[in-house]
Amino acid sequence: MSTSNDLGQWYKSIPPITRTWFTACVVVPFATRFKIVNPINLTLHVRPIIRRFQIWRLLTCLLFYPLSFDYLINLYFLYQYSSRLETSTFDGKPADYVFCLFFLAICNIILGIILSISVLMEAMIFSVMYIWCQLNKETMMSFWFGMQFKAMYMPWVLLLFRWVISNTLQVPLCGIIVGHLYFFLVFKYPQDFGGAHFLQTPSFLYRYFPNDRASVSGFGTPPPSTARRPDDPENNDRNPGRQIFGGRGHVLGGN
Fold it and tell me: From start to end residue, where is composition biased (Basic and acidic residues) (predicted)?
C-alpha cells in the first residue's frame, strides 16, 4: 500500500502539462503492446493522412515508440527535462509552454515528412532537452566514467551515445535542430541581436491555460533562475553536478 501511495504522490507531483504528455506516451505504446491498436496505424505516413484522412497520425507519431530499453530512456528524459522546463522558464505560464510544444511538434512533423521519419517521440524529447540545456548551459553534468561537461554540450554527448548504441543520428539530430530553431527565435534573436519576437503565443490559449501567477519575466526572457552566470550560487538548478546515467546514486540525469 505504501508503494502505491508513493507512486501516486510522485505522479501527482509531475507538472500538469508534462504529466499529460508523459501519460500519453505511456498509454499509446502500451495500447499497441496489448493489441488494442495496430502500431502501423500510429506512425507518420503522408498517403493515409491525405487519402484516408487519418489525421490522428499527426499526433500519435509524436507519442508512439516501440517498447524497449530505449523507450524507457526516452520516457525518463521526457519526465526530467520537460518537468524542469515547465517549472523554470515556463513556471506559471502554461499557455506559453503549450505553444512551445505545439511549435516543436509542427516543426518535427515537417522534418519527419521530408526525411521519411515515421516515429517522432524521441525527436520531441531531444527538442525539449536542447532548450533546457541552452537555458542552463553553465550547469555541470556528469556522465559515465566520471566525465563532466556543461549542459550546453549534453545533447551532443547523448547524440554520440545514441549513435554508438544504435548507429543512428537522424531522429535525435532533427530534435536538436528544431529545439535550436525555437531557442533562437524566442530567446537568442530577440535578446542578443535585438530582433523582433517572431513567435508569440496566440491570445486564445490564455483563455484555456491562464497564467497561474504574475510572471517574473515576459515570454521570451529567461527567468532569473536560468541566468547563465557560472559564479552565481543560484545557478545550475541549485545543483552544481547534475548526473546523467550514473554517479553517487543519481541515474540518467536526475536528482
Answer: 228-240
Alpha-carbon span 62 to 122, nearest angstrom: 8
Q: CB atoms < 10 A from the CB of 149, how many?
A: 14
Judge contact between 246 and 142, C-beta under 8 A.
yes
CB contact set of 224 (below 8 Å; sequence gap of 6+): 216, 217, 234
Q: Report pLDDT for 252.
A: 42
Q: Please tell me the pTM assigned to this model.
A: 0.82
DSSP structure class, residue 200? -
pLDDT given for residue 147 in this prediction = 78
- Spatial neighbors of 41 by CB under 8 A, at least 6 apart, are 54, 57, 60
**Tell me: the pLDDT tens digits for 178-198?**
999 999 999 999 988 888 888
Q: How many residues does the chain have?
A: 255
Mean pLDDT of the 164-173 span: 87
Q: CA torsion sign, 210 to 214 to 216 to 219?
A: positive
Q: Where are the domains of the chain?
A: 69-208
Cell numbers that stand for 232 in this block: 552565481
